[in-house]
Amino acid sequence: MGFKMGIVGLPNVGKSTLFNALTKTAAAQAANFPFCTIEPNVGEVAVPDDRLDKLAAIAASKNIIPTRMTFVDIAGLVKGASKGEGLGNQFLANIREVDAIAHVLRCFEDGDVTHVEGRVDPVADADTIETELMLADLESIEKRLQNLVRKVRGGDKEAVQQVRLLEAAKAVLEDGQPARVVEVDADDLKAWNMLQLLTTKPVLYVCNVGEAEAAEGNAHSAAVAEMAAAQGNSHVVISAQIEEEISQLEPDEAQMFLEEMGLSEAGLDRLIRAGYELLHLETYFTVGPKEARAWTIASGTSAPKAAGVIHGDFEKGFIRAETIAYDDFVVLGGESAAKEAGKMRAEGKGYVVKDGDVLHFLFNT
Predict the structure, then answer these.
(1) pLDDT in tens, 230-266
(2) What does 225-265 look like in DSSP terms, one character per residue?
(3) Distance CA 37, CA 34 (A)
(4) Are 329 and 358 in contact (CB under 8 A)?
């Protein structure tokens, strides 16, 4: 079950520096999980989770396999991208393929690094990209509405539903707001998602600050934080320069470097975790002597669907899930002790998996 986050930003904001740090960090993690760079601009990184290490230690697991996210370094955008300016068409096509957007904003002053607009204003930069995405959505909606006219006249129910949803999106876009502000009923959610509008993607603003400002941020990142809160979006403060330096160090050296900079953890860990939270993802675990493994699911996933993340046959032949809460597993010291204490539960098809559940699935082949 792959989840992709696209890294976007105007030229010279530190987008590629950040992506390079991500991929170098992921390469260093390759001993613990299967890392691959699918294309030059695509890389997978482990989602940091201390719980997995604790579970593995208790079960004496030989291998530890964390869950992971895919990051895509999307072609730089310039004003006019919605009309094909610069690498606009490639940019828009890549955006459609990701689940969320990590929008890197320049929040540092550096006379040696020119800004495409000749000034440092991250809020204005965010507006530039949002505007281009909204314009692209409006153009797409106009074309789709024209193509649906005949089907609507013929009484096609799906076409009628699509037109209703497209009109709702068009109204908010023409009002200067992204399509994600549209309130969609549960019955319309599947059709809404199939529209693949660019501005329905959740956004995480990444404030790229200078080294000296990595711990506390600055006035620019504070302005972004205020904007993100007003929009209902998230933000993280990070120094791409620091992250690139850390990615080239051994773990012990990296930790010492972080402490010297007054940082408790790498910014990339916060970025990955924030992306995970932004997509409303959760983790469950499978634990045994061979391996301890983390699995990614969407919040609210049923036990059979969670089993299907491991293998489709697990979902098809699902019988029940033997479930132990993470805290019970750790406090009691493992599966056997949890079972003896009555903390292992047998859950059926209607069970909604909770974050941190340690699961064992029984199924018919």
Answers:
(1) 888 889 999 988 988 888 888 889 889 888 888 888 8
(2) HHHHHHHT-EEEEE-HHHHHHHTTS-HHHHHHHHHHTT-SS
(3) 10
(4) yes
